[in-house]
Amino acid sequence: MTLTKFEKARIIGARALQISMGAPVIIDVPSVMVDPVDIAILEFDNNVIPITIRKVAK
Amino acid sequence: MSAILWKDTKKNMRDLIKHTPAYYAVEAELSEVPKEGYVTTDQKYFTYYLKISAVEEYKQQESIFLKRKTGLKSVLKIESAREVDPISLGEFKKGSKRVKEFEDFMTADRVQAKMEEKSAYAEALAPEVKKVMEDARGLGYELPVSVATELASKRDGIKKSVYDKVLGEIDRDIQVKSIDPYEAVGIIAAQSIGEPGTQMTMRTFHFAGVREMNVTLGLPRLIEIVDARRIPSTPSMTVYLNRDIEDDEEAVLKVVKELENTTIIDVADIITDVAEMVLTIKPDQARMKERLVLPSDLAQALEKMKGITVIKGETEDNVIVKPQQESFKKLYQVQEQLKELTIKGITGIKRAIARKQNDGKWIIYTQGSNLKDVLQLDEIDSTRTYTNDIIEIANVLGIEAGRNAIFRESANTLAEQGLIVDQRHLMLVSDMMTFSGTVRAVGRQGISGRKSSVLARAAFEITTKHLLRAGLLGEIDPLTGVAENIIVGQPITLGTGAINLVYKGNNK
Predict the structure, then answer these.
(1) By C-alpha distance, which of B430, B429, B459 is closest to B444?
(2) How far apart are CA B169 and CA B166, in angstroms?
C-alpha cells in the first residue's frame, strides 16, 4: 500500500512519541541512533511499525 | 415544412389530446395544408405540438373541437397532439427572419438547432498520441494527454529501452507531483493568486483608434471578478458575426447600427409645456443623421408606447405628445419615459465599434452588455459571441458557462499583466464560486458568510450575532471544517490531522 506524505508523517510521529516515552524498539537500532524520530523512520523503512491507517467513509 | 402557430386555452388542449385523432375548427382560412401546429397558452411559449393531416372547410357538425364559437372557417384534422417542453417564439423563423411578435395563425418554420455528436475525446486523439498512451498502459502507467502529445512529437529516434525508461520516469514524476488527499489546496490557491496579485499594476488598456473604449483590467478587474459584482464597472461584449458576412464591411456596419441603443434624448430635445399639458419632441437633424435615425423610426417607437396620444406638430418633424390622463404627475412620468424610450438598437448597448482583424474579418466590440438580446439577432454568430459580465453569462447560459467565464476572465486578467498562475488555482476558485448553483462572491456575502458551521462564521465576522442566532435556532455544528476545530481545540481535518491510526497487531 502506498501512503501519502500525511499518512507517513502521522505514523512516524505516533511511533516516535511511543519510543520517546520508553516503548521498546522493535528492530535492532545502532547504538549511535538516539533520536526517537530517527528510530521511528528506521522502523518505518523496515516496515515493522504495528500501526496502520483507517480510512473513514464520510 | 411549415407549421402554424396559434393560441388556445389549456383546457381545450387537454381535451383535444385525450380525443385524438380529432377534428378541430379554427377561424383562419388556410390556403395550404400545414403539417404541424404549435399551440401557445400564454403567447410566449409553445407547449403543445400537433400533427395535422388535412384541412377542410368548416361545416356545422357534431363531435368537433371548436377553438371559439363564432367565425369559424376551416377544420383541421389532427392526427396526434402532445404536450412538449416550452418552445420559445425565437425558435421560429418566417422566411429568413426570426419571428419577433406573435400573431394568431401565423405560418412559420421551426428552426432546429443543428446538433452534432462530438466524438469521444479518446477517439479524437492523433494516432501517434494514442500509441504513446497505449505503450504507457502496457507498462502499467496512465499518462495525461498533454504529456503523451509532447512525448509523441519527440518519439522519433529514441531506442525502445530508453523510451520505456522515459515512460517510467514520467510516471514517477507525476506520482510525486500530484496532490495528496487532505492537502490544503485552498490556501495554496489563495497564496498562488495573491502573491502575483501584489505585483499587479493599475494600468488600463486602451483600444487603438479614433473612438476609444476603456475596459477595466488589472487588480480592479480581478477584485470585481471574485466579488461577483452584479454589474461590472465596464461591461462589454465581443460580438462575432456569421461567417458569411464576417468580411462584408457594409453588412457589419448595419449590425453595428442595429446593436447601438439610441433613445429619444440622443436625437431630439423634449420640451415640456406645463400650461398646455403637452410634450414637444424636437428632433435634431444633425444628430438624427449621425445615428441613422429616420423620422419614421421615431414615429414607430412612439406608437408602441402606452398611455399617450401622438399629434403631428405644426412644423416639419416636430411631434407633440399628450398624456391620456390630464395630471402633472402623469405629464412628468411620460416625460421621463420618453427620455428613455428606445428608438433603435438593443437596451444596454451604449456604443458599438467594429474593428477589422488582421485576417480581414470584422469583430464588433460594444460598451454595455445585453447577451440575451444580442443572441437573438440573426446576423451574429451566437457560438462565439462573448460578454465580460459573468453574472449575465450565468443567467443566460447557465452556471457551467458562468464557471468557465470566471475562469476565463481571471486567467485573462492575470495573463494581461504578464503574471503566470497555474490554471488549477483559478479553476478551484471558480468551482468554489459556482458549485452551489449560483455565482457567489468570495467574502462576507458569499462563500465565507454562508459556511454551514456556526463557529466558522462566528470566527470570520460579527461573532455575537452569529452565536446568538445559532443559539436561538438550535443549530448543530458537526465540526468538519478548519476554523471550528481550532476553536474547540481539536486537530483540524487537513493534512496529518485527518489521518486516523489503528493498531495493526504484530503478525510477524
Answers:
(1) B459
(2) 5
Contact by Cβ (8 Å): B293, B343: yes
Residues of A in contact with B499 (CB under 8 A): 6-7, 10, 53
> Does one domain contain both B194 and B172?
no
- Answer with the one of B344, B378, B413 that is the final residue of a domain: B344
Q: Which three cell numbers, joined as nine digits, stand for B330?
A: 402623469
Residue of chain A whose alpha carbon sits nearest to that of B183: A6
Q: What CATH superfamily is the domain A5-45? A: RNA polymerase subunit, RPB6/omega (3.90.940.10)
Number of domains chain B contains:
5
**Among candidate residues B234, B337, B225, the one with its CA nearest the CA of residue B279:** B337
* Alpha helices per DSSP H over B260-315: 264-267, 285-290, 295-304
Q: Does residue B250 fall inside a structural domain? A: no
- What is the ipTM score, two decimals? 0.86
Would an 8 Å CB–CB cutoff place B501 in contact with chain A? yes
B180 with A54: Cβ contact below 8 A: no
* Per-residue DSSP letter, B305: -
Bridge-based pairing of strands B3-7 and B500-503 is unpaired
B89 within domain boundaries? yes
User: Where residue B476 sits, what CATH number does that domain have?
Assistant: 1.10.150.390
Domain that holds residue B85: 3-110
Judged against a pLDDT cut of 50, whether residue B241 lies above it is answered with yes
CB B279 within 8 A of CB B271: yes
- Each residue's pLDDT tens digit, B165-223: 888 888 888 888 888 888 999 999 999 998 988 887 655 555 444 455 667 778 888 88
Is residue B363 a part of any domain in this protein?
Answer: no
Res B26: pLDDT: 79
Residue B54 placed within a domain: yes
Interface test with A, best of B175, B180, B480, B501 (most A CBs within 10 A): B501
